[in-house]
Design goal:
With 425 residues, the chain is an all-alpha fold. 73% of the residues lie in helices and 1% in strands. Helix 1 packs across helix 5 and helix 5 packs across helix 6.
């Protein structure tokens, strides 16, 4: 009973870590409460991970260019302070989640952590569907989620044109669904499964894909990333315990489910169907896999017109008609600042690397996925990669090193983290 309660609490923590705007806490999003608890817990545990200093040092690089553009343009934009508050809150919220995970599943595998992430995404999708079908359910969840006036207006304007999710919508929703698809592929390619488990994974993948597609077509970018990861892991065969048959059966089952899912969308969501499948319909008719939204990007991809803006930007991180992430970053703090923005994310990825090659490739896929997303809008995946980094550090200091000391397997050259365990705890 105690463990069951712990699982419920951990699921709730994971859910609101991923979707912090889904509930307001003291007038702020959830991560400011969970992040505050995470900071207190981290200090109480005597700051156990020295690698955290490298994370914050990497962020100083970004901070420098934010202040440099403010100095050069004599204008201070609130972007840095808003971003810093969110990043600190998300980082320590992730610490709280990982600490709770280790309390519930002592030495639990990375697979199990991903199960919680994927389960949270599936729950969010189910709530979004219920909100669409049952108006009282929509009224309840809309009343508890934290929405500003601009978000409320945008949701009102698009109601009936797409699925509006709980805690997130539009571009942000598509990002998270895409991450979940990539993690499902990591699991199917690194964990030996029987046929029933393969079918279940394929059902989960198809479910996330279609709910994501009805919410934000950005999920197609994540689906593409997951397919690339599947092919790479299949060709490299990094995990000898996973047969080629397992991957092929997953692909075959998924193809069947995609066909069934398309029919169900036309049956139960006819008003969304043409919008959701616009890219596929255009491909059939014109041979171009595009949408009106993607076609408009060429007009939004604006480059700086002066050397000064190339070097340090104009200091304004405002929405002025372009969604493109690269354009907004370049205009705000130039090429050096844009590099610093992605360098911080690169360092989080690099610090998460272990001898688990499949996980490393998954991290690289997530990084590439984010680079692709910034063609459409400004994004980062730090809330997810923080979870992975802190899991790795927790595993290193509280699972691997204690075992190494006990077994006497250490030397003057230090330690090398082995492939993460795949056992379920």
């Amino acid at each position: 009973m105690k463990k069951f309660f712990g699982i419920i609490v951990l699921t709730v923590l994971m859910f609101y870590h991923i979707y912090p705007a889904a509930i307001g806490m003291f007038g702020f999003s959830f991560i400011f409460t969970s992040g505050g608890l995470g900071i207190a817990l981290y200090i109480y545990n005597r700051t156990p991970f020295p690698e955290i200093a490298k994370v914050f040092m990497s962020y100083l690089f970004l901070t420098f260019f934010c202040f440099f553009t403010a100095y050069m343009n004599s204008y201070y934009d609130p972007y840095w302070i808003d971003t810093t508050k969110s990043q600190v809150a998300w980082f320590f919220s992730a610490y709280l989640v990982v600490y709770s995970f280790n309390a519930v599943h002592k030495g639990g595998s990375i697979h199990k952590l991903f199960y919680y992430f994927i389960a949270a995404v599936c729950i969010q999708g189910a709530i979004s569907l219920l909100m669409y079908w049952i108006p009282p359910v929509a009224s309840f969840f809309n009343s508890i989620q934290l929405l500003d006036i601009e978000a409320e207006i945008k949701r009102d304007d698009t109601e009936g044109a797409r699925l509006l999710g709980y805690g997130t919508a539009f571009f942000g929703a598509g990002i998270i669904y895409g991450i979940a698809l990539i993690l499902v592929v990591y699991i199917i390619m690194t964990k030996t499964m029987n046929l029933r488990q393969r079918i279940f994974c394929a059902v989960v993948y198809a479910y996330i894909f279609f709910v994501g597609l009805l919410t934000a077509r950005t999920v197609m970018v994540g689906a593409g990333g997951s397919l690339v990861l599947l092919i790479i892991l299949f060709l490299l065969n990094r995990n000898k315990g996973v047969s080629a048959g397992q991957a092929l059966s997953f692909i075959g089952i998924s193809v069947v489910l995609v066909g069934i899912g398309q029919t169900l969308v036309y049956l139960y969501f006819p008003e969304f169907a043409e919008w959701a499948f616009e890219a596929f319909l255009n491909y059939q008719e014109t041979g171009s896999f595009s949408t009106r939204s993607s076609d408009s990007l060429e007009y939004m991809f604006i480059l700086p017109k002066t050397m000064a803006i190339w070097l340090y930007g104009n200091g304004h991180m405002l929405f002025w008609g372009s969604d493109v992430g690269y354009t907004r970053l370049l205009i705000y703090f130039g090429v050096p600042g844009t590099f610093a923005f992605f360098f911080y994310q690169f360092m989080i990825m690099k610090l998460s690397f272990t001898r688990n090659k499949a996980l490393n490739l998954t991290l690289i896929t997530l990084f590439a996925y984010n680079m692709a997303l910034n063609v459409k809008g400004l994004s980062d995946l730090n809330s997810t990669t923080y979870l992975i980094l802190l899991y790795i550090l927790n595993y290193k200091y509280f699972v691997y090193l204690p075992q190494t000391y006990q077994q006497g397997k250490y030397n003057k050259y230090g330690y090398t983290l082995p492939p993460l365990n795949n056992r379920e705890n």
